[in-house]
Design goal:
- There is one protein chain.
- The protein is mainly α.
- α2 runs parallel beside α4 and α3 packs across α7.
- The chain has one domain.
- The termini are far apart.
- The model has no long low-confidence stretch (mean pLDDT about 75).
- It holds the Pfam family VTT_dom.
- InterPro entries: DedA_domain, VTT_dom.
- It is found in: Cell membrane.
- This is DedA family protein.
- Its main location: membrane.
Length: about 200
């Protein structure tokens, strides 16, 4: 995969970075943890400039968030509430849970979007609740852009600094993302267990 991404960036330049980061948001198996360090290495070689690499990575990431935002917005909270009331008991999920989640997102949504854009494993998925809860598009774009710029900048600079060893970035970010994902899953399981105890 690394060779394919590098070839795309070599042939399309900045446009290749943009397209890869759009795809990374829609197809999470394409990892930004490889795209941006590789682009940073290209900047270190002098083929590109680091500011433009970060800019194109950020733009691609933000554009890639929009389809999932609109999917969430299209289906909306009420349809999901109806689905949860009808089928959600198998997941211990009710319409009231979705309403409460919507209220929580209204209070913390901007921070969730800003910091969540820097968390591998959930970066792409944050667009769905933002759309479901009709987060204002200007706020969604601003916070997505800020979070994406920090993430793209960090990864690109790491690739720039590591030079030919840019692929080592994924080695360190990969395990960290698994730990974060594991903590999120553990938190979800604890939430389900507590909810079942409260219902007993």
């Amino acid at each position: 995969m690394v060779e394919w991404m590098q070839n795309l960036m070599d042939s399309l330049g900045y446009l290749g970075i943009f397209l890869l980061m759009v795809a990374e948001n829609l197809f999470p198996p394409i990892p930004s943890e490889l795209i941006m360090p590789s682009a940073g290495f290209a900047a270190a070689r002098g083929d590109m400039t680091l500011p433009m690499v970060i800019l194109m990575g950020t733009l691609g990431s933000v554009v890639g968030t929009l389809p999932l935002y609109y999917i969430g917005k299209f289906f909306g909270e009420e349809r999901l509430i109806q689905w949860a009331d009808q089928y959600g008991k198998w997941l211990t999920l009710s319409g009231d849970d979705i309403r409460r989640a919507g209220e929580w997102f209204d209070r913390h949504g901007t921070r969730a979007v800003l910091f969540g854009r820097m968390v591998p494993g959930i970066r792409s998925l944050l667009s769905l609740p933002a759309g479901i809860n009709s987060m204002s598009m200007p706020a969604f774009l601003i916070y997505s852009a800020l979070g994406s710029a920090l993430w793209s900048g960090l990864l690109a600079y790491a690739g720039y600094a590591l030079g030919e060893n840019y692929d080592q970035v994924e080695r360190y970010v990969g395990p960290a993302s698994k730990v974060i994902l594991g903590l999120l899953i553990a938190g979800f399981i604890i939430w389900i267990l507590r909810r079942k105890q409260a219902q007993a």
